[in-house]
Each structure stands twice: as C-alpha cells, then as structure tokens.
C-alpha cells in the first residue's frame, strides 16, 4: 500500500484509488505502487473485477510533465498499460473531472470506461509539442474511428462524457456516486462472464476507415501546423494505427514521441505550460481577497463592450455605463449581435445568450455604480478624460471597490494620485477583441493594495484570461516591446525591403501575420493618432493615412483588399511611394535578407524585454513569454521572445545588436546589461540581480 495508491474492496470487486494531488499526474511514485497493486489483484482469485478510480477533483490528468527531459524511471506508462492488458478479469476506469493524456491512455488500457456526466476526456499532448506516448494514437482509433481520433489528437481538445459515450470511448455515463456505479457496472460485467477484449485487440473502430478521406483531413490539418512538428507526427501515428499491426504502430508511436520530447519545440511549449501558471501566482499566498459580486464597466465602445462580455461570460452581473442612452443602446446592440453570431456558429446556445444578456444593466448615471465591487473604465485614451472619470468614481464607488483603468499606455500612478484611494487603483489592460483575446496585463501601480491585486488575479482566471502582473511603464510589457519591434520597420522599407518581404519573414518565423498585415487589420489610423499625440512621425505610414489608406477597413493600407476580403494584395502604388520617399532622403534601395529583417525587429524586442526585466516591471522572464504568446501570437514552438533568445543564443544577439548599433547609433540596438549577463550565465533570472 502507498500514500498515492490505495486498494479497497467492495465484495469481489477491488477498487484501486490513485491519490496524487492536485491532478493525479502519473508520477513515478504513483506508477510503481499502481503496477504492484494491479499485479497483486490480477493474481488474487477472490477478485472478480477491478475498478481504477481517483481521489480529489479529477481522474488522472496525464503523465507528470515535470518528469520530461529527465531519465525515465520504470515502470513507465507503457509498461503499466501492458500489464493492465494481461488482466483477464474485467477492468473498469471510473472517470471524473478530466481524463487527459496519459490518464486517458491508462483508461484505454482497461477493458471498460465509465464516466461522470460532467467529465471530459482528451489527448492534449500536441499542446505540449508531443503526441500521446502511452499508446493513445493506436488505441483511441480502435474505439472512436480514425478520423475522430485524428481530430481529437491533432486539436488536443477534450470531449464531454456524452459525446465520448456516443463515440464509443466510454461504456456508460453516470450521475452521483461514480465509484459505486463503477463497482456495480464491474460486478454486472463479471457476472455475465468473459472473455473481455482489451482495446488493443478491438478493430471495430478501424474497419470502415476511408484512408483517402483520412489523408484529406490530415492534409488540411497539416496546413494549419504553421511549422509545428507535433501535429504532423500525431496524424502520422494515427494513420499508422490504420495501416500497421498494433505492435508496429505502437513502436512507431514511441519513436515519434522520443523525437518530439527532445525537440526545442516541445521544450518551448512545456515551458509555456508552466510559465502561464507561474505568471498567475501573486507573491502573497495568504492574502484575503476582496469579494467581487458585481462589475461596472464605463464605456460601451469596442473595448468596453468586449470587456463587459468577458465578465458576463465569466458569470458576473454587469452595470454598463455610457454618457447617453443612444451610446448605451448602441453598445448593448453590438453585444447582443456578437452573442447572436456565437449562437449562429454553434459556440453558444440560445439559452446561454439570453442568460448572459440578462446579466447586463445599462445606465448613464454614475450613481448606479455604487453597488459595484470592481469598476473598469474603457473611455477615450486621454489622461484628462481618465482623471475626470476616476474623480467621479472616487465620489460614488463604495469603500473597497477596485477601480481599474483599461489604458494601454497612460501612467496609472498619475491616475491613482488624482483620487483619495490610490490603494484601490490598478490597470486591467485587455487586448482587442477583449471577449476573445486571452491575455490580460494586470498593472500594479505603486500604491495598489496587495489584496486588490490578488483579487483581480484570481478574477482573471474566472473570466478565462491568462493574467500577467506588470509594473507601470510606457506600454507596460507588450506594447513597449511592440514599439521596439517596429522601430526599424520604416527604415527597412526605405532601405529596400517591401511590406510583403518583411511580412513573409515574420510568417516564415511562425508569426500568424507580419507587422504590415497586422497594421492593416488593426487600422493604420490608430498608430497615426498615437504618433501625432506624441509628436512622432513615420513617413510612409503617415502618408498612407493622409491619403485615407487606413487598411482593411478602407480597402487600402500597406496592401490592397478586394471588397469584403482580407487577403492582402501587394500594391505597386505603395512600393512606388516608398521608393519616392527613400529617394527624397537619399537612400538607395538594396537587397535585404530575411535574417536582417529578424535581426532588426526581433532582436531589439528581446533587448527591450531585458530592460523590462532589469526594471522589475515583471517578476520573471517567462512572464514576458506569456504576454507575447497570448497577446501577440508569438509562435508557441519558440516559447516566447525570452525563451527563444536562449535558443537563438544571447551572444549572437548581442553581436548583431552591436553591429547595428555601430551602423545606426540607435538606442534600440544598445545591448542591455541583463542581456549581456544572460549571455554569460545562460539564464535571465541569474542575471536579474543586476
Ligand atoms: N504534470 C505535472 N503537473 C501538472 C500537470 C501534469 N500533467 N497538470 C497540471 N499540473 C500542475 C500545474 O502545473 C499546477 O501546478 C497544478 O497542477 C494545477 O494545474 C505519456 C506525454 C488538468 C485541466 O497536458 O490541462 O500525458 O501551479 O493550474 O486550471 O501520452 O492542469 O499549482 O504548482 O492547470 O484546474 C498530458 C495538463 C500530459 C494536462 C487542470 N496532460 N494539465 O486545470 O489547474 S503529457 C496535460 C491541464 C502526457 C502521455 C503524455 C490542467 C487541468 P501549480 P492547473 P486547472
């Protein structure tokens, strides 16, 4: 018996309970006693059937990810499952919570699976740059068919118990006491008598596989892989299940797993898995959080409406405030239309839409915010306007209400200093569209109370956001580094690179799109307005805006767009404009390589990240990676800018920054001290003591 695996009896049915909080990961200290228990029960004639269950909030949520990259301690998961399949008496997995990865693979080693009605089952290894390494790619298709298995494994998305039952993945779904139901199910099965066929020997799911249709679907999925190896390997492993004998396909799965687990892409994606969880931890564990029962949102425009939806989606009642009934109704109308689109797409039921809209109360009177525990302003990005709003909030908000600004750039310390309760003020920087984008930069101002900060970090999880706590500086983390990344864009154009060439260098790197496509999508007028407010110029972008070329919304920006289309078309007029402006500056065009483009955009971005870390704007380098992957589409296979700097080599980055600094004398190329320390120590944190 072990603390992590306990065996109990209910008559002739043995119950093996795994207890390895928080998610029952299949760590070595679980695998070893579990194997011993299974062998003992297999050979015990008084045991007619075996149920494998888990204590706590979930069935096994996977292999222990912290063990990857270290020597494997036997028995490994495959040995465990192989032993399970030597048991002739019926074995039943009792699944509640989330049976994921190795957890579902363990369950597939049982003859039967029963699930709680609220359970979810999936093989999310692809999100870690892996594939199911415990036989999941070979066993799952045998139950649900090759195409459904392909979709589940390449997407990594779990399915609910009802869908799993319909697909043949689980044999029964229960409400109430799952273990009791599982014991009765096992006893009934044993009473009927065997033999019981292990999943590995079942081919019903494979019989009608249309390999041509499978290959077509796999090909379509491969197009979305964007340079990631795992999705391709997943599809190959599932195809092997169809075309190879079981043991051969299993061996092929193992070979693919061994290659992937050692890959930089998987290391990067595993880094991000833990980085997201680290970022959400505030230093103070024992802080009593404030209670948020009602949320006030000021401003029902694009940002305010999206933020309101994010909170409504998290179950919060909303008071939405606008300056006039007309603006309020327009905002509510947009919110209703957005939910209607989700219903049409099938991602929201009609009932859920009604329920979310019922959470909204509209008003044009600040006094109606008096019962809100958290108030978020999303008004015009102007310091005077923000201060006026906070002044009104100071007068009406109840004591202890958290007062948040959604500003992207403005100094939150200055806003906090303008009212009587700076301890209640912080930033909640959402990214547009706020009801969709995962990233939330939580800005800790100098006087923000620790309990206020801990409260919103906790709240972020409830509304499905990936939270990163950042300090006050211009542009916080994301936009500050975005400015560094874009600081050379104009120079690259004037020196001879085209928008298409620069964007191509980005998409070849793994970005979903390049900076010029992104500018056209977001609207070039936004950056134009920001530059004018700060007395800055960008000769090409400003000229395009002066010509009314704002991007997709005007059909023309850096690219041309056909009516109602988003596909960027290179525009000779823009390229001629660039050449004209370059000639005016006496710049002769030259060939510019993709490497140069990356050096003059991503290296300054990493350098800025080093400065952000030095200034203590974030607690750890991986917070920066979380910001960029969840807010700006940095390729997950490269782990975020700071993780990628380790792959690229800090010394190489420094050498190239110094080269460009010598040629341009621009500050963005002056290597930060922490970057130099990282080159010596190999760690951002080791050097962060600077
Ligand atoms: N291994 C180790 N630690 C894990 C873990 C895992 N598989 N899953 C979660 N944790 C830790 C997590 O870091 C956090 O730690 C705590 O548990 C709570 O997690 C061979 C190769 C299950 C849906 O990918 O999706 O099996 O921060 O904050 O929001 O084929 O955890 O408290 O110190 O996320 O309630 C496949 C990963 C592994 C599932 C619960 N399985 N986990 O979410 O809690 S690879 C996965 C999750 C594999 C085999 C392959 C979620 C969750 P700390 P949490 P949650």
Walk me through this protein's architecture:
The chain has 690 residues and is α/β, with parallel strands linked by helices. Strands 12-11-10-13-14-15-16-17 form an 8-stranded mixed β-sheet, with helices on both faces. A 6-stranded mixed β-sheet has the order 1-2-3-4-6-9, sandwiched between helices. A 3-stranded mixed β-sheet has the order 5-7-8. Strand 10 (295-298), helix 12 (302-313) and strand 11 form a beta-alpha-beta unit. Helix 1 (28-42) runs parallel beside helix 2, helix 5 (146-155) packs parallel to helix 8 and helix 12 (302-313) packs across helix 13. The radius of gyration is 28 Å and the shape is globular. The two termini are 50 Å apart. The site of (2S,3S)-3-hydroxy-2-methylbutanoyl-COA has 25 residues, from strand 5, helix 3 and helix 11. Monomer. InterPro entries: 3-OHacyl-CoA_DH_NAD-bd (IPR006176), 3HC_DH_C (IPR006108), 6-PGluconate_DH-like_C_sf (IPR008927), ClpP/crotonase-like_dom_sf (IPR029045), Enoyl-CoA_hyd/isom_CS (IPR018376), Enoyl-CoA_hydra/iso (IPR001753), NAD(P)-bd_dom_sf (IPR036291). Belongs to the enoyl-CoA hydratase/isomerase family. In the N-terminal section; belongs to the enoyl-CoA hydratase/isomerase family.
């Amino acid at each position: 018996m072990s603390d992590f695996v306990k065996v109990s009896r209910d008559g002739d049915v043995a119950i093996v309970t795994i207890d390895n909080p928080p998610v029952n990961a299949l760590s070595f200290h679980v695998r070893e006693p579990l194997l011993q228990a299974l062998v003992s029960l297999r050979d015990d004639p008084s045991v007619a059937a075996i149920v494998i269950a888990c204590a706590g909030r979930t069935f096994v949520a996977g292999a222990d990810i912290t063990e990857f990259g270290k020597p494997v301690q036997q028995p490994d998961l495959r040995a465990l499952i192989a032993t399970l399949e030597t048991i002739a008496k019926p074995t039943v997995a009792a699944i509640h919570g989330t049976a994921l990865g190795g957890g579902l693979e363990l369950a597939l080693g049982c003859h039967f699976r029963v699930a709680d009605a609220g359970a979810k089952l999936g093989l999310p290894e692809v999100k870690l740059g892996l594939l199911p390494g415990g036989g999941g790619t070979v066993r799952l298709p045998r139950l649900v068919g090759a195409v459904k298995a392909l979709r589940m494994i390449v997407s990594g998305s779990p399915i609910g118990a009802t869908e799993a039952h319909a697909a043949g993945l689980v044999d029964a779904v229960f409400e109430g006491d799952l273990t009791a139901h599982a014991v009765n199910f096992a006893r009934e099965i044993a009473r009927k008598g065997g033999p019981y066929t292990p999943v590995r020997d079942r081919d019903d799911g494979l019989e009608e596989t249309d390999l041509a249709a499978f290959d077509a679907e796999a090909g379509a999925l491969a197009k979305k892989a964007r340079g990631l190896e795992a999705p391709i390997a997943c599809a190959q492993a599932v195809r092997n299940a169809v075309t190879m004998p079981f043991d051969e396909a299993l061996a092929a799965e193992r070979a693919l797993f061994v290659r992937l687990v050692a890959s930089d892409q998987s290391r990067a994606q595993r880094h991000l898995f833990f980085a997201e969880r680290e970022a959400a931890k505030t230093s103070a564990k024992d802080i009593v959080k404030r209670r948020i029962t009602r949320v006030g949102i000021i401003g029902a425009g694009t940002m305010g409406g999206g933020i309101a939806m994010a909170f409504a989606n998290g179950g919060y009642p909303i008071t939405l405030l606008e300056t006039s009934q007309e603006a309020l109704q327009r905002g509510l109308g947009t919110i209703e239309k957005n939910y209607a689109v989700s219903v049409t797409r099938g991602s929201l039921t009609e009932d859920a839409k009604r329920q979310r809209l019922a959470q909204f109360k509209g008003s044009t009177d600040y006094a109606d915010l008096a019962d809100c525990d958290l108030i978020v302003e999303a008004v015009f990005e102007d310091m005077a306007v923000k201060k006026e709003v906070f002044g009104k909030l100071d007068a009406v908000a109840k004591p202890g209400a958290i007062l948040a600004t959604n500003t992207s750039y403005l100094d939150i310390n200055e806003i906090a200093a303008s009212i009587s309760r700076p301890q209640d003020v912080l930033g909640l920087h959402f990214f547009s569209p706020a009801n969709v984008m995962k990233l939330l930069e939580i800005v800790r101002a100098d006087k923000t109370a620790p309990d206020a900060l801990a409260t919103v970090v906790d709240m972020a999880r409830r509304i499905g956001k990936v939270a990163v706590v950042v300090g006050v500086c211009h542009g916080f983390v994301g936009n500050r580094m975005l400015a560094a990344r874009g600081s050379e864009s104009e120079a690259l154009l004037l020196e001879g690179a085209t928008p298409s060439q620069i964007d191509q260098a980005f998409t070849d790197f793994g970005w979903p799109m390049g900076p010029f496509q992104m500018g056209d999508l977001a609207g070039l007028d936004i950056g134009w307005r920001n530059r004018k407010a700060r007395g800055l110029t960008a000769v090409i972008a400003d000229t395009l805006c002066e010509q009314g070329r704002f991007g997709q919304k005007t059909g023309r920006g850096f690219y041309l767009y056909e009516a109602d289309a988003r596909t960027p078309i290179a525009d000779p007029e823009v390229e001629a404009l660039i050449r004209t402006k370059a000639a005016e500056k006496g710049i002769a065009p030259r060939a510019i390589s993709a490497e140069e483009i990356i050096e003059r955009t991503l290296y300054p971005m990493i350098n800025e990240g080093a400065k952000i870390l030095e200034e203590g704007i974030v607690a750890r380098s991986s917070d920066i990676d979380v910001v960029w992957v969840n807010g700006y589409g940095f390729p997950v296979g490269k782990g975020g800018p700071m993780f990628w700097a380790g792959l690229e080599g800090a010394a190489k980055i420094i050498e190239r920054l110094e080269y460009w600094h010598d040629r341009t004398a621009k500050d963005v190329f002056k290597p930060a001290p922490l970057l130099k320390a990282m080159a010596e120590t190999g760690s951002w944190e080791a050097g962060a003591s600077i």
